[in-house]
Amino acid sequence: MSTYRRFSGQMSDDYDLLTRAYPEYGKLHEILARTISGFFEDDKQREIRALEIGCGSGITSSYILGAREALVLEAIDNEPVMIGKIAENLRKLIRQGRLKVREAGALEHLYTFPDDFFDLIATGFTFHNFTTRYRNDVIREVFRCLRPGGLFVNADKYALDDDERRFEELGAQLNRFFDAFVPLGKYDLLKEWVVHNVADQAPGHAMKEKEALSSMTGTGFVEVKLLYRHGLEAVVKGEKSN
Predict the structure, then answer these.
(1) Rounded to an integer, what distance in angstroms lies between the CA atom of residue 40 and that of residue 42?
(2) Strand partners, 238
(3) How far, CA to CA in Å, does 130 sit from each of 70, 202, 207, 210?
């Protein structure tokens, strides 16, 4: 079994600077949180059991937890630096018992749960880091681990199916990295993010919209929808039917 690790060194150390290069980062997460809140609107008193795959420094985690007061989240990441960051950034929520963090890979962790275990599985800017094959394996495990009536929602890089538009948007995104990091003198970090983003579009790796949504539908998800798109980033959700 392979565990994909694409963040280390300066990329982990300065991860939160990433938001400077993504003007829609906050809006993507707000839509993710509203989707969660609306989906569980009729379950205000019931505790929502949730899993976040690839928590990073805790940015997405805070939006997930802010969506529902009765939500309890287990957040995983396979980078030790990230686990340290989220443990520090969201220590109050950990003390309150609403958040548990663990260093683990996606598949290895999902394999430990029985069928129909989580009400919600959510993630932000993680699945695009997987190869297509690994990602499809994760999607199948996400579906298995969701209870009937459960929700999967992802704010992430969903590549455009039109290659010409896709690479136009990639060029625009790379320019935003230059605008964000050159004034800070973060040239090594700029190089790492440029290489990372170009690699995101490689064959066997790019998470193209049509293919990704078809994979979810083929796995068994219903109400699979792209809720919002800006450039190469989008919010996608799917449900497990009762």
Answers:
(1) 5
(2) 152
(3) 31, 11, 9, 17
Helix axes 132-145, 209-219, angle to 10 degrees: 40
CA distance 213 to 9: 33
Amino acid at 178: F
Domains in the chain: ranges and CATH:
10-239 (3.40.50.150)
- Tens of pLDDT, residues 60-83: 999 999 999 999 999 999 999 999
Look up residue 12 and give its two tokens: 């982990």
Tens of pLDDT along 140-189? 999 999 999 999 999 999 999 999 999 999 999 999 999 999 999 999 98
CB 139 within 8 A of CB 216: yes
pTM score over 0.70: yes
Parallel/antiparallel/unpaired status of strands 222-230 and 233-239: antiparallel
